[in-house]
Design a protein that fits this description.
CATH class: Alpha Beta
Helix content: 25-40%
Number of helices: 10
Order of helices and strands: EHEHHHHEHEEEEEHEHEEHEEEHE
CATH superfamily: Metallo-dependent phosphatases
CATH topology: Purple Acid Phosphatase, chain A, domain 2
Structural class: alpha/beta
Largest sheet: 6 strands, mixed
Strand order of the largest sheet: 5-6-9-12-14-13
Amino acid sequence: MRVHVVSDVHGRADALARAGDGADALVCLGDLILFVDYSDHSQGIFPDLFGPEKATEFIGLRAAGRFEAARAMSALLWAELGGDPRDHIESAVRRQYEQIFAAMPEPAYLTYGNVDLPPLWNDYLRPGHQVLDGTTAEIGGLTFGFVGGGLRTRYRTPYEIDDEEFARKVEAVGRVDVLCCHIPPAVPELLYDVVARRFERGSEATLEAIRMTQPRYALFGHVHQPLASRTRIGRTECVNVGHFRGRGTPFALEW
């Protein structure tokens, strides 16, 4: 059995269309949309609306930790654009989702990332797409558990949830062979992004579940350039499956 796993797709519909080649199924750990690209400031919803120069300014403020200034700048731009910002964002997200889900191979098992908009997914799913969040699925004789979304941060991305809600989903998944989350367990070397030079948030609940239940694998994404892409906790192999937008290739799991 061979399963390909991707995370942090961020608009890479071209590579996603090939991600299932040679696999029995695809697992997608979320973050399908691209709001702004920190490497190419001309790509994403923000530069599409306001231009790459404004995107560069916006990224610079966020990279410097000046989040209030970034929000104030964004508010001025939205006011100049006119209309409800939520309508503009939803229209742009829908255009990206239409392309992404059309390219998504079948069968695919999906969960949400922290930048996704879960209420919109049902409009674009195809028959071979199965969304799981706080639930399990059997794939090739192994039980896969899925926990979607992210934890609360100063970035205020769209699908961040309270620690307690996240922990309830981890508990609901229970004992599995493969634990699939968007964000990593709270292990420092898995959380530090060497390019952004900052720690992302990880889940203490996921870490505790790994220690207690010892799945074969814990798979995740979220940190685009991690200090360590994998580590072992007891018998559990913890693997960051890679920044799919940057790599364009899936992680392969075989058994």
